[in-house]
Amino acid sequence: MEVTLLGTGGPSGLPRPGCPCAACASALGPWVRAATSLLVDEALLLDLTPGAALAAARAGHSLGGVRQVLLSHPHDGPAVEIPAGLPRPVRVPDGRELTLLSGHRVRALALDSPGTGYAVTGPDGLRLLYLPPGAAPAGTLDGGPYAMVCADVTGRPDALARLRAAGTLGPATEVIAVHLDHGLPPGPETTRRLAAAGARAVPDGTTLEVGAYEEVPDLPRRTLVLGGARSGKSVEAERRLEAFPEVVYVATGGTREGDTEWASRVGAHRERRPGSWRTEETCALPPLLAETGPPLLIDCLSLWLTHAMDEADAWDEAAWAGGGERQLQEKVRELVKAVRETRRTVVAVSNEVGSGIVPATASGRRYRDALGRLNAAFAAECEHVLLVVAGQAVVLRG
User: Fold this and answer.
1) What is the 8-class DSSP label of residue 29?
2) Are 184 and 193 contacting, i.e. CB atoms less than 8 angstroms apart?
3) What is the mean pLDDT of the chain?
4) What are phi and psi of 340, to 5 degrees?
5) pLDDT reported for residue 256
């Protein structure tokens, strides 16, 4: 089964007409995207969009053999002209299954938002799942993993999490991001964010063979996200795991009874997290890393270090010289060893303080130096290291 992506953009395309935003202004050349439309084996068209016939011709295909046109979501704007000879587009009721003369079977899936998803089984038995923008499946899914999923990865990453939890998105499933809009910058940043979800984007007009699994991105298993205060490092770390179910959020900062400002920070973090994530408030990181289980998001190493230095009585000069420094070094070695040996997917957050103001106190300089060494040792064990500055992620490794 072959799929030609006649368009991969949002309903208004990319750039959006008349939009002055930076993402639209930089969407040039190969980053220009028409509204999403899929042509399956030249027999089935999923979503009829303006210029579909011309887009098919540019890709070396024809709509002349299309036997069924299915719409997945309500279309705003002027009515789309139906090319001559093309069947009238229809929306299929949820749960209904169609069998085409070409041998394709199409089942309409219920969603949690207005629209319809389509599960397509080709004559070769391979399965494709297509979801409209802003939608995720509702209810249960069955039938084993799909060979390919085309979905709104950036707008609804939790849809991938649901598919993974149900087993309908497996390690060999190729995930193609469609409905790409101006909420995500084009170019390398888009590629990097999609790869973190196990997905990729392709230019309009690309033809893909369903079942060609060699294109599935390899996910980094250990990632360190560095950044200064309010740089967006925690948001970046959460973004890297929002397409996965049952993430364990490891909060190392504790609750701090009576501190309303801290409670407000914690509350903001909790509101951003998907409901399927579980929170553990602990600084006992090595045992968690040694266990098998869902991905860990550790936020953050700098608060873990504060706890470890408190235990080592690092703020007292005599205690530090009398064995506190060695105690801290041992804790750091234990943590780094656990990261090296873990088989879990891990995303950790830490503060980058080496470029800041030199602390005025000896204890402040001691903490700064210890954090710098911890970050360097932890990063050495990670496949992917990012530095977040003003909300922009710079790749240092991976």
Assistant:
1) G
2) yes
3) 89
4) -60, -35
5) 54
Q: What is the pLDDT of residues 176-197, one digit of tens each?
A: 999 999 988 767 788 888 988 9
Q: For 282-321, how does the pLDDT look when each residue is reduced to its tens digit (9 = 90+)? A: 999 999 999 999 999 999 999 999 999 999 999 999 999 9
Query: Do strands 278-281 and 68-70 pair parallel, antiparallel, or not at all (unpaired)?
Result: unpaired
Residue 104 exposed, middle or buried by CB count within 10 Å (0-12, 13-18, 19+): buried
pTM, two decimals, is 0.86
Among 117-126, 150-159, 255-264, the minimum mean pLDDT is found in: 255-264
Q: Which of 325, 299, 317 is nearest to 361 (CA)?
A: 317
Set 179, 182, 269, 307: catalytic member: 269
Residues near 208 by beta carbon (within 8 Å), at least 6 away in sequence: 2, 3, 4, 5, 148, 174, 176, 202, 215
Distance CA 32, CA 203 (A): 8
202 sits in the region (left: phi over 0; alpha: psi -120 to 50; else beta) called beta
Q: Measuring CA to CA, which residue among 157, 219, 160, 162 is closest to residue 192?
A: 219
Reading the block at residue 35, the tokens are: 């509204």
Tokens of 106: 């199409």
Q: Is 182 a catalytic residue?
A: no
Average pLDDT over residues 197-213: 91
In the Cβ-directed half-sphere of 4, how many Cα atoms lie within 13 Å? Answer: 20
Contact assessment for residue 288 and residue 309, using Cβ atoms and an 8 Å cutoff: no
Cα separations (Å) of 194 from 134, 177, 398?
A: 16, 8, 14
Encoded tokens for 168: 């309908």
Burial 276-315 (b: 16+ CB within 10 A, else e): ebeeeeebebbebbeeeeebbbbbbbbbbbbbbbeebbbb
Range 253-274 burial, b when 16+ CB lie within 10 A, else e: beeeeeeeeeeeebeebeeebb
Residue range 83-107: average pLDDT?
92
**Residue 121 Cα distances to 1, 141, 305, angstroms:** 9, 15, 52
Beta bridge partner(s), residue 249: 279, 297
Closest to 145 measured CA to CA, from 221, 210, 220:
210
pLDDT in tens, 265-278: 555 656 666 778 99
CA dist 332 → 282, 309, 373 (Å): 16, 10, 9
